[in-house]
Amino acid sequence: MKFTCSQQSLSKALNTVSKAVTSRTTIPILKGILLKASSDGTLTLSASDLDLSIEKKIDVNVEEEGSIVVLSKLFSDIIRKLPNEDILIEEKESNNVLIKTASSEFTIVGLAADEFPNISELEGQPETLSFDKEIFKDMVRKTSFAASIDESKGIIVGVLLEIEPDTVNMVALDGFRMAVAREPMKSAESTKIVVAAKILNEINKIVSEAEDEGDIQIMLSNKKAVILVETTKIVIRLLEGEFIKYKDIIPTQNQTKVEVGRAVLLESIERASLLAKEGKNNLIKLTIKNNLLTITSRSEEGNVKEEIVMEKTGEDLEIGFNSKYVIDVLKAVSDEQVLMEFNTSTTPCLVKPLIGNTFEYLILPVRIASNY
Amino acid sequence: MKFTCSQQSLSKALNTVSKAVTSRTTIPILKGILLKASSDGTLTLSASDLDLSIEKKIDVNVEEEGSIVVLSKLFSDIIRKLPNEDILIEEKESNNVLIKTASSEFTIVGLAADEFPNISELEGQPETLSFDKEIFKDMVRKTSFAASIDESKGIIVGVLLEIEPDTVNMVALDGFRMAVAREPMKSAESTKIVVAAKILNEINKIVSEAEDEGDIQIMLSNKKAVILVETTKIVIRLLEGEFIKYKDIIPTQNQTKVEVGRAVLLESIERASLLAKEGKNNLIKLTIKNNLLTITSRSEEGNVKEEIVMEKTGEDLEIGFNSKYVIDVLKAVSDEQVLMEFNTSTTPCLVKPLIGNTFEYLILPVRIASNY
Fold first, then answer.
1. Which residues of chain A lie closer than 8 angstroms to B270, CB-CB?
2. Sheet holding B191-196, edge to edge
3. CB contact under 8 A, A267 and B301
4. Do A301 and B108 touch (CB under 8 A)?
């Protein structure tokens, strides 16, 4: 293997594929990036942690075909710190790799390419979806934070991607809150997949770094999906199992409805949570009375009362929350006003836009002592 | 105590004085900030960790004189997160403190002001120096990193500030390298003080945040110094003991002199140190031969050779360094070219500007095995 390429394009490609390299693996070859130079003048870079694999092609000057695995961190650090000029990369004996510019010469230890896991293609004719980049990014951002971060919890570490004839939905939940994002989209077939939230977050970074506007392509099979973002191919293992029937959980009848400014509510709750450290519960109390929303909280260090004018229909109510869950929701959306709907002080609160249903959040309340 | 003030000016003042609050103290009152409202319309904020005390005055509307201590972190967090409007602050019974705006109302637990340590003034007529802000900041930046961070090492955790009739020198060293910065300055008397490097770094932050150009004032006594930065008064405890006679260490005769580009040398050494992890020593070897400076390094992961064209007078030389010490020096200065002077492979290297002596750095070499 022998090729020359520009420092900038190689460094950028390494930044993308290294997102699939995990430092926590015990399998040495998975700390590496596979470099494959082909006679058609392309270098294919691949990395995989078995759940997530990323492959990217760049144009290089190939003098000699071949492939080798280099340590991701060391190789990326070297390439990033080289000046922006042409780099020669050449396989030497014993899997050594020479990296050479006008004034620098590195020889680093590589690994044989044949040990690298095969990033296999999907079989047959997979179903393909097109997704606008901005819509995809926004839906992931609105939902992935609500997935469980506890790996022992099974499928709820994932985000449900539900394709229906006229809409696409993303859903995540962790037992304390649920996030639903919806966008209109025409699809020939209905289908459901579940993808680990942390993988979706990595994909979102790659989508954010993409250079052009336009769509990403998602190809689905039974256990895998392939996502194409420009010249980057991402292969992900889907989570298996039945996702919670989330539509049954969303309350349709609510006694109390509150319309409130999102930014002012977010700031008030952030201030109130400065004194909401009791038992790590971040407990705040919302008192909905007439046209005033009052947020109170207290700890050994003091107490706080925040007042916000709002529009209300229905009954007055007192309800407690873990402030973190409310803050997460108010940060994930950008609407000027939001609608909060309540039934009782022990049933979940629903947060949604004034018009439509592009998002719906459910937040479980925390029981508050009668003397709080 | 009762006063109203603007959120912005209070938040800014808290940001300054809280630099003297240490979270690691076991004395509860030192986690606090003393607020003192006077009938002349000033609020004085004070904080101290006994080694460093900071006092700042701001204009407020005082309705009732008085003073109280509030917890630095909680009070600063609350004030920072309040909207930019007028804030009422009032002492209530049992040392409670009310913080009130149009829509927020906090009551936090305070501490009695009489427990707060007295930030005493200097006695008599202390000697006063004026220091241009930019020069002060630059000299601290050029030297403080070289002081020892090992608190058990005594006076070398400090930076020597040496006032001579025509120059001021700052000097720091840690046994492996030494940094000297010099600037012309007329002074009536010669004097020397030693200030802990970490205190100088905090002072540099305050100087950086100052709003106007101009001078800072330094007033010296035997064991203390007072530094005035605009309306901020900083009182520091000086380190006691004799600083190392640093002038005797600087070599005056050097066999080999190398003139080299600072940025290109810095980048080469940063790249070479990617492979310089052997025994945590960051070992790199510099080979000075004819007009080529070659930097080599190696580890189990591979090896590297960097070449830089330079101008040399004197003998060829091979010498080993801990790359961190060379990188620190090359980052601290901004000259386009620097002069490196060497005697043998076991004596310190001197780094200085091409012309003049506004800085001088000594770096101890590391012995390299003959087969390296």
1. 81
2. B191-196, B158-163, B167-173, B177-184, B359-363, B349-353, B337-342, B256-261, B311-313
3. no
4. yes
Interface of A with B (CB under 8 A): 71, 74, 77-78, 81-83, 96-97, 103-109, 267-268, 270-271, 274-275, 300-308
**From the CA of A30, how many Å to the nearest CA of chain B?**
16
Backbone dihedral angles phi then psi of residue B57, each to the nearest 5 degrees: -105, 135
Query: Nearest by CB to B103, which of A104, A302, A308?
Result: A308
Range of the domain at A348: 252-363
Interface predicted TM-score (ipTM): 0.90
In angstroms, rounded to a whole number, what is the distance separating the alpha carbons of residues A338 and A152? 34
Contact assignment for B81 to A305 by CB distance below 8 Å: no
Q: Which chain B residues contact residue A78 at CB under 8 A? A: 271, 274
CATH number for the domain harbouring residue B154? 3.10.150.10
Domain shared by B291 and B239, yes or no: no
With CB atoms and an 8 Å threshold, state whether A106 touches B302: yes
The amino acid sitting at A152 is: S
- Rounded to whole angstroms, the Cα distance separating B306 from B301 reads 17
Contact state of B107 with A304 under an 8 Å Cβ cutoff: yes
> Digits of tens for pLDDT over chain A (372 positions)?
999 999 999 999 999 999 999 878 888 899 999 999 999 999 999 999 989 999 999 999 999 999 999 999 999 999 999 999 999 999 999 999 999 999 999 999 999 999 898 877 777 778 888 889 999 999 999 999 999 999 888 999 999 999 999 999 999 999 999 999 999 998 888 899 999 999 999 999 999 998 888 899 999 887 899 999 988 999 999 999 999 999 999 998 899 999 999 999 999 999 999 998 766 689 999 999 999 999 999 998 999 999 999 999 999 999 999 999 999 999 999 999 999 999 999 999 999 999 999 999 999 999 987 766
Sheet holding A292-299, edge to edge: A317-322, A283-289, A292-299, A302-309, B104-109, B96-100, B86-91, B2-6, B61-64
Among candidate residues B200, B230, B247, the one where a domain is terminated: B247
Q: Is residue A295 part of a domain?
A: yes
One domain, residues A85 and A153: no
